[in-house]
């Protein structure tokens, strides 16, 4: 079953609409979150899921990398989209990756989001702990596809120089968590009980 869905064909408007579809809580980035070990934890998601918006920035050093961590309690569909301040989506250039608890890259994107920003949609993600990395363009050369490897953002390009991107962003994270079969059955039974009570009260 295909796990990754390309977003380029959807267009920026659809990505923004999807990322904003749930009532999102707002989280502000807290430094230092420059590595997996210091990643900022942003929440645990249980059925039916939820959405958050993270206000972050790649700092003035030009080699900043931001890492966030989250947990999911069941198989999930995950939408991630980096959004720019109004008018900046064509002048700033970012990259993003989703990483497993063991440090392997699950998905990576350069500019499938609005303008030159990244976005992707991951299906059938197993329960567990995950990391999101945000960096500047050329931290990883797109042709050096890191998916399936442990090649993570380090803030430097292939020449060892800082990636050079400095910008503010809003990271939209929307998660749909599929309930376990037993939980789904209990929910269905609860619906039947409510339905029968309504009928008997008529």
Strand content: 35-45%
Global structural class: mainly beta
Distance between the termini: 47 Å
Outline the low-pLDDT stretches. 1-6, 8-23, 192-201
Count of all domains: 1
Sum up the overall morphology in one term: globular
Number of strands: 11
SSE ordering: EHEEEEEEEEEEH
Please outline the major beta sheet.
6 strands, mixed
Strand order of the largest sheet: 1-9-6-11-4-2
Which fold name is given in CATH as the topology?
Jelly Rolls
Q: Mind telling me the C-alpha Rg?
A: 19 Å
CATH architecture: Sandwich
CATH level-1 class? Mainly Beta
Helix content estimate: 10-25%
Give me the number of helical elements: 2
In round numbers, the mean pLDDT is: 83
Describe the fold and architecture.
The protein is mostly beta strands and about 200 residues long. The chain has one domain: Jelly Rolls, CATH 2.60.120.380. The chain contains 2 helices and 11 strands. It has helices at about 10-20, 180-200; strands at about 5, 25-30, 40-45, 50-60, 65-70, 75-85, 95-100, 105-110, 120-125, 130-135, 165-175. It has a 6-stranded mixed sheet with strand order 1-9-6-11-4-2, covered by helices on one side. Strands 3-5-10-7-8 form a 5-stranded mixed sheet, with no helix packed on it. Strand 7 (about 95-100) and strand 8 form a beta hairpin. The longest helix has 20 residues, at about 180-200.
């Amino acid at each position: 079953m295909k796990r990754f869905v390309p977003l380029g064909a959807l267009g920026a408007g659809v990505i923004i609409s999807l990322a904003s579809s749930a009532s999102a809580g707002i989280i502000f980035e807290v430094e230092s979150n420059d590595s997996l070990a210091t990643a900022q934890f942003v929440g645990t998601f249980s059925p039916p899921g939820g959405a958050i918006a993270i206000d972050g920035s790649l700092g003035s050093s030009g080699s900043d990398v931001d890492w966030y961590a989250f947990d999911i309690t069941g198989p999930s569909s995950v939408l991630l989209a980096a959004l720019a301040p109004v008018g900046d989506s064509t002048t700033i250039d970012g990259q993003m990756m989703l990483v497993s608890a063991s440090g392997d890259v699950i998905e990576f994107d350069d500019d499938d989001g609005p303008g030159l920003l990244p976005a992707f949609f991951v299906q059938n993600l197993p329960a567990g702990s995950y990391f999101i990395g945000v960096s500047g363009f050329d931290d990883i050369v797109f042709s050096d596809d890191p998916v399936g490897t442990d090649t993570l953002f380090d803030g430097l390009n292939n020449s060892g120089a800082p990636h050079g991107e400095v910008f503010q962003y809003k990271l939209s994270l929307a998660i749909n968590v599929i309930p376990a079969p037993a939980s789904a059955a209990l929910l269905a039974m609860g619906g039947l009980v409510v339905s029968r009570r309504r009928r008997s009260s008529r």
